[in-house]
Amino acid sequence: MPLAAQAATVNINVPADWPAGGVINLNNTDVLNIAAAAGSPAVTTTILLAANANVTINGSGAMVTNLRIQDAITDTASHNVSINNLHITAGGSNAGYTQNMGVLVLTGDNEIAGVGSFTGIASTTTTLTITSTSGGTLTASSNSGRGLVGRTLNIEGSADVTATSATDQAIEMSGASNAINVAAGAKLTATSGTGTTGISSAAGNLAIACDGTLTASGANQGIYASGQSVSITGSGTVSATGTNGNSILADSLTVDKATVNATSAGASTSLNITGTTNVALTHGATLNVTGGTVFAAFSGPGFTLDAGSSVTLANNSASAEQHPFTMSAAGTWQLSGSAAFVAPATATSSPATITIPAATSGTIRLGPASGGGGSGTAVPTLGEWALGLLALLLGGTALTMRRGV
Hints:
Elements: E1 9-12, E2 23-26, E3 31-34, E4 45-49, E5 55-58, E6 63-65, E7 67-70, E8 79-84, E9 87-89, E10 97-99, E11 102-107, E12 109-113, E13 121-123, E14 127-131, E15 137-142, E16 148-150, E17 152-155, E18 160-165, E19 171-173, E20 177-182, E21 187-192, E22 199-200, E23 205-210, E24 213-218, E25 223-233, E26 237-242, E27 248-256, E28 259-264, E29 271-273, E30 279-282, E31 286-290, E32 298-299, E33 303-305, E34 310-315, E35 321-327, E36 331-337, E37 340-341, E38 352-356, E39 360-368, H1 384-393
Parallel strand pairs: 1-3, 2-4, 3-5, 4-7, 5-8, 6-9, 7-10, 8-11, 9-12, 10-13, 11-14, 12-15, 13-16, 14-17, 15-18, 16-19, 17-20, 18-21, 19-22, 20-23, 21-24, 22-25, 23-25, 24-26, 25-27, 26-28, 27-29, 27-30, 28-31, 29-32, 30-33, 31-34, 33-35
Antiparallel strand pairs: 34-39, 35-38, 36-39, 37-38
């Protein structure tokens, strides 16, 4: 029987240790150590992973240029690519990490950058998972390309992931159906620069499941899904900011349980829903929308809420904004701040047109339906044992009482 292959340790300690051929091959269980004194390779160098290989790459915290990572195109199973204090910038016309089925496992502070217009991390298949058990961080970046491209993005454990681009989308969700999942304790931040968006899902619907924290900000939109639906679920918080444009631009939006903060910091309406379906909030969801400079908070058909869900609109325009609010089941509208009914709407109307005066903020919450009876409070009745006790307390007074009388 042949012996099992032995794990190899590859040490790059000084500049002369970089391979002249520009390729470092890593097989299953191999470890690559890059010392600060090694500097950067003189030629574009690829860390090429064998199919399904679990590998470890240890950096020194210093930036290494001309270096990239590539999964095998023959991967058939997920495998761990553990990185520790690794900072690399690709050379040539390449992404920093071309991912197939690798799972990035983070320790310490890490950065993977694409060169020029090339992506920091490019996921070529359906799923990219980034995780940590120690609060590891990762920045995926590009100067003039996208920070990260994928279809399903999972941020798990205690991973803290940031995607940035100076002049392009920070995160581009490239599939016909896209998903971002952020676990409790995990964090995802997408920040883009001039004329671009934090998270773009222009080619397909976007489903966000967030039990942790997700922040998306862009010089234009925070989240851009023109012509597509956006659904946000989970117990976490999603914050979207458009520096000069909409916080969220989509055909439709649903929010379940989650807290969503949508802010425009520029000359634009904040939440822009272009389709005909109301924004739907369920299971106590909270939506806070702040309009841009001299702009209203919301543009779209209206809102549908269930009991416990609420919408806060900060209208920064010079005129009142008003929208129809519909109950998904019978309830009572509870208004605070500047929010007010537009006659003939009342607390039990569905839909009810509600207005937010200029330069003010108001909250609309759907409470439970009122109880029966003229006062809205049910009148209790006494059982026979309680009636007998009451008679004793009255000192034997001859009192005849019957249930319901």
